[in-house]
Structures are given as structure tokens and as C-alpha cells.
């Protein structure tokens, strides 16, 4: 890759999405779904694909099984112009899969982690990483192979001269075993959503939650859905309002799209408020089409859509 910018490290899986399901599953019975789609899944992959679509030269580091789903994942990333050169294949695990059962505006998910748990600190391409500008890691809790080394990972990325960002995402076990006092000093941008920062800090207001971690953090960015987004740096607060989409299709991947937009501007050294604005804009763009990456076809169409729907620009 030439002119490397963003290295995304994280989980990889396919999404098997079922729609128009006739009822709810019950043990010992069978129901029918009238529509099915197999797509590229994982929050990390959505972020990487959409970052690439808006003009960031992006590579991915993760693990897939040596199987058809693994081949599909690599091919889908490469279609999005994301380099798969740092994706490893393993014979010990099958590729991860999430079964998504959609019911109108709600859904139920079942995930098999598989090869997601095989990513370790040693598989991160440390010999090549100095060629990048920024290091992003998503979905910490479901990647058991890196959890014990999370502080060392970010410390090494900083020592290599990269800026860094972390999106913990939700802890399925609801234990929130993340040592933010040790890790966050090496994270330039910490990117939880509102519910995640509440769960992590055991607080129920943004002010209280941020006060728990700001001593250890550099920049804290909180995604707040319809309330927009907010950032904190050196006791200063920055806000950006949401871009409303009255024709919302779904919000799958909106937070990951926010991450892509924010990091694009962060790499460009834009002011924090501009980073927030573009993050909100990419989150809104995400909701104009089904799934996490469908709205991000190419840069020209993205610019046309955000101009026509939101009267804005990148």
C-alpha cells in the first residue's frame, strides 16, 4: 500500500440477516423468514470500509477462519478498497458469524465469535505499523486474545508514532473489565457511546461519567444518537448537533460510521468541533440505506447524498 493512513485492528465476521420473520423462535418449533441476506459484518470492518469510502487509505488487521466465510470477508473488504494484507487465516477456528433476526425497528442477534478470539498482540504488524498515521481498535470485549494486552498494544502504537483511538463497544458479559486508568493515557481519542460510558463508570449522567475518566484520558468523544455528540479535552467541552434523517432506513453501523467520519477529520488535524460534525454527518448518512456499508458506495455519491439530504459536505 502507498500513502498508508489508517490501520484498523478488530473483529471480523459475516452477518446472516433474516427479515420478514413469521413470529418469534420457540424451542422445539420452526418458523420461516421470507428474506435473507449475507453481508460483511463486524463493527470494526464497517468502520474500516466506510473510512476507505470517504477517502482514507485503510488497512485491516484481524483473523478469519480458513473457510468460505473468511474468503468472503476478505473479498468484501477489498471491494471497499480496504487492504487485507494484515488479515490472518487460521485452521483452528471457523470465521465468526452473527445471525441477525430483524423485527421492524428492533432485532435479536446471536454471535459465534470463532476466529475473532484468535487475534493476539503478536499478530499486529508492528514491523509495518510505522508507515501509518493512525491506529484504531474496536469491540474490545469480544476479542479475548487481546484483552490482557490492551494497554501494551496502545503503548506500542504510540511508541511507533501513530495517533490512536479506541471504541470499546458493549460488553456482552456486562462485567466491564477494562482498566481505563492504565490504558487511556495511550489512547488519543476514546469513543464510547452514552450507554457504554455509563456502564463502564457506573454513572448515569455524562458529566459524572466523564469526571471518572478524564484524569486519565486525552480526548473523550461520546456518541449520543439523536442528541448528537460531545467531546471533552483539557476540561473543555465541544458539542455538535445531529443531522436529522426523516426517512431513516435503519441505524445498523451508525456509530461505526461516526467513528470513520470523526477519524478522517482527526487525521487531517481539524478542530474537534469539525471532527464531531463530520462524525455526526457520516452517522446520518449511514441511516439512509440498509446495513452498515450500503450508503457508502463511493466518494462522489456520498458527497451528492449528504448535499441533497443534509445540505452539508465533508
Automatic annotation (TrEMBL):
Keyword Ribosomal protein: no
GO MF: kinase activity
A Pfam family: PfkB
Keywords: Kinase, Transferase
Protein name in UniProt: Carbohydrate kinase family protein
Sequence ranges assigned to domain Carbohydrate kinase PfkB in this UniProt record: 5-294
CDD domains reported in the protein's UniProt record: KdgK
Record-linked PROSITE patterns: PFKB_KINASES_2
Superkingdom as given in the UniProt entry: Bacteria
Entry-linked InterPro entries: Carboh/pur_kinase_PfkB_CS, PfkB_dom, Ribokinase-like
